[in-house]
Amino acid sequence: MTSSGAPDEIHVAGRWRAGRGRPLDCVDPASGEVIAKLTAASPADVDEAAGAGAAAAADPGWRDLLPHQRARYLTRIGELIEARAEELAHLQTRNTGKALTETRALVASAAATFRFYAAALETTETPLTPARGPYLTMGVAEPIGVVGAITPWNSPIASDAQKIAPALAAGNAVLLKPAEATPLVSLALARLVVEAGVPPALLSVLPGKGSVVGDAIVRHPLVGKVSFTGGTDTGRAIGRLAADKFMPLTSELGGKSPTIVLPDADAEQAVAGILYGIFSSSGQSCIAGSRIFVPESRYEEFVDRLVAGARRLRVGPGTDPGTQVGPLVTFEHRDRVAAMVDRARAEGATVLCGGDVPDDPALACGAYYSPTLLGGLGNDSRTCQEEIFGPVGVVLSYRDEEDLVAQANDTIFGLACGIWTRDYRQAWRLARRIDAGTVWINTYKQFSISTPFSGMKASGVGTDKGREAILRYTRQKSIYWGLDEDPLPWAR
Ligand code: NAD
């Protein structure tokens, strides 16, 4: 471990050691300070991890555990995460810049995820299906063997847990590839998984570049499924490789989610929810409500309220308990967001607030960007069609419900949607008409692990979360048990 408590080795095939890839510096985006120096994994490490993972998953000592016995390990992991919650939250805040309030919630969610899948595993039933002859018919779910879990940088421990917990529950080994910039909390999680008594080769954590380490995982012949969360272009590239291998792929991808104010909405509630939806996590959230639709009749009122609210947000380091908007994950990403706002200006956007790097000297060393609202753009602008993944929202107006639905659905994405109204009939109608895997009505960005999560259109294929997620890490097999004493009639 480094003096800051950050892990400095990676976990390959059951051993802690340096990777065989390139040097990898982990940086605190609030200060620019290097907080850990690792050596990334290499394709050779992926190969070793896959071989050892396959052997560990096939070992009768693990393979033949009964569900309630395997569940105990998951419960223990959840307990260990809870016991180290503060340490994990601080580590994630230092590596990602996210506010401590958010990283604490992510750590709690990771612990709850392991407990949930322990309970789900113990209570998953093997279906006896209705037979159409003198036999018993049943379906059994078998482990795939080795699965790849590839995660982004915005919520590492929670997204890692959502893949590792059901995959281990199903009896698999996992090769986890955290995002290049933010591997530290995933490595810390691996220490807890090992401490819980899980055979160490069942979880390898392989940091490094996606195009090298992630690609090696996707292509590896022993990897029988990949669960990917990340950008749409990356998901598309992985999908092509998965198709070549006939390998199942779950992909949770990008979004450009509409958050909709209906004419009767309670302005105070809607504004608080919209600000949270776009500016929490500094907008680095797949489900960020980045297109804000307001009725023409209330456009000025909402622009004024949203701008006043955005200007009040406290921007600062994630470690400051008062911070609402932390730095972006890296300086490169901050510059990318700034360039997209410049492009929006060139497209004719009016900057309603923000649109710059904060001038507070105390923030000069960090990768900060001011909460930004834009107006004056049509939904067909590039700014409204492409994910920015930063604290940038566009306020748009609509005439009536038909116009609203047409604009809201005019996007390649279909991840989430928020609706603010007191009119439950219209809320229901819209919730069914908008292309989105998740719709929030009079709330936003609320989650429960028992509720499935998925995207429509270019926001992804397949589903995470929910008790059925365990089955998504299995191969289905049907078994027919003949009950007749007599030989089959055909050959007689
Ligand atoms: P990204 O696609 O660049 O990277 C995601 C992960 O994939 C990283 O671990 C990366 O190293 C790896 N990767 C990159 N290229 C790869 C390749 N060729 N083969 C295999 N792996 C590869 O995404 P990001 O910038 O880390 O994260 C932001 C994106 O993630 C946004 O688009 C966001 O919307 C999306 N996201 C989606 C969800 C969801 O549940 N739908 C949740 C969080 C983030």
Automatic annotation (TrEMBL):
- Give the InterPro entries listed for this entry: Ald_DH/histidinol_DH, Ald_DH_C, Ald_DH_CS_CYS, Ald_DH_N, Aldehyde_DH_dom
Q: Which keywords has UniProt assigned to this entry?
A: Oxidoreductase
Q: What is this protein called?
A: Aldehyde dehydrogenase
Which PROSITE patterns has this protein been placed in?
ALDEHYDE_DEHYDR_CYS
Q: Which superkingdom, per the lineage?
A: Bacteria
Taking every annotated instance into account, which residue ranges of this chain make up the domain Aldehyde dehydrogenase?
16-479
Pfam families recorded for this chain?
Aldedh
